From TrEMBL:
Residue span, Integrase catalytic domain: 188-352
NCBIfam families: transpos_IS30
Protein name: IS30 family transposase
InterPro entries, sorted: Integrase_cat-core, IS30-like_HTH, RNaseH-like_sf, RNaseH_sf, Transposase-Integrase, Transposase_IS30-like
Keyword terms of this UniProt record: DNA recombination
Superkingdom of origin organism: Bacteria
Keyword Cell inner membrane: no
PANTHER family: TRANSPOSASE, TRANSPOSASE INSI FOR INSERTION SEQUENCE ELEMENT IS30A-RELATED
Amino acid sequence: MSKFFTYEERLELQKYLKDSLSFKEISRRLEKNPTTISREVRKYSSEIATGYPGFPFNACKSRINCRNKKVCDKQCTRKSAIYCKLCTSCNSNCLEFIEEVCTARLNKIISPLVQNGQSVNQIYINHQDELMCSEKTIYNYIDACLFDVRNIDLPRRIKFRERYKKPEFKVDKGCRIGRNYEAFCTFIEKNPDTAVVQMDSVIGIKGGKCLSTIHFVDCSLMLAFLRDANTSKSVIDVFNQLDKLLAKDTFSRFFPVILTDNGSEFSNPKAIEYRESPPFWRTNVFYCDAGSPYQKGAIEVNHELIRRVLPKGTSFNELTQEDINLMMNHINSYKRKKLNNRSPYETFSFYHGEEVLHKRGCEPVATSDIMLKPTLLKK
């Protein structure tokens, strides 16, 4: 069977489509494969604004239940004794006209951004004036498979439950005396206006490079530092670098309290709390209870964004700090509901200014350029 259509065959195909014949029946009559018929129709078909037989085209969202009469004050080209929705000038003259959203137009906006790793909420925040529909409607259209993307393409729509893994306790419990979660809660009660910073690690492959993450809870901004090994010394080096970069008084102002977990890399809290020159004190370190990551839930949630770019099992050995800064710029420019639809970068800048961010190499990323996929670091 030939895969090409002659002019005469295309005329016959057009006639059969007008007769509402199935692709299978058309393929039998034209002696071609049904797939060939389907491909030809998809490739060369076009949308024409036509109404039902005997009715004009009407793009109003309320056209089915509309009962308006005498909408047009001008000389009407097609007066209707029943309802104005039967008039060809209805859409252009009616003040209550609301255009029905075209799924093809929505698909062109939404699908590429979802494929870049953006959530539906993020897309809706930045394009709601173009979408002209609710966030729930977008989810309904995705559920109905009306877009190129599916539920499995959404960052948090489909998840697989992780296997239970017995927790490992590596830290000498002596370092936690006076620094446990109960002590942290007591400290916050006495100092309610103190900003809390959460700290954790993101592991690549075992024995390879890893990340230290520092999360400012009040504005959801996160910093990440590439370390050659997951050791206590490498974490201390990160804080010594920050202390030197920001100056002593600025460091203590931004890091008054640090809450972290029981990883062995955090087993020397005094080296983080104190510097070698006066003023010696620089911060307070506290630990979550063993097996209770929810006590520092803000940083755990933000790690999900890192894992979109660096999935579990990915090696960090070929990455540089510039790569990590690029990833964090995209994450910190990602708008959040809890921040009143602002990004962490915008929120931090509003409260603290951009000077500190620029010192750390943080830069904003345009919303249309945000990508939270592994390809971000492979360009």
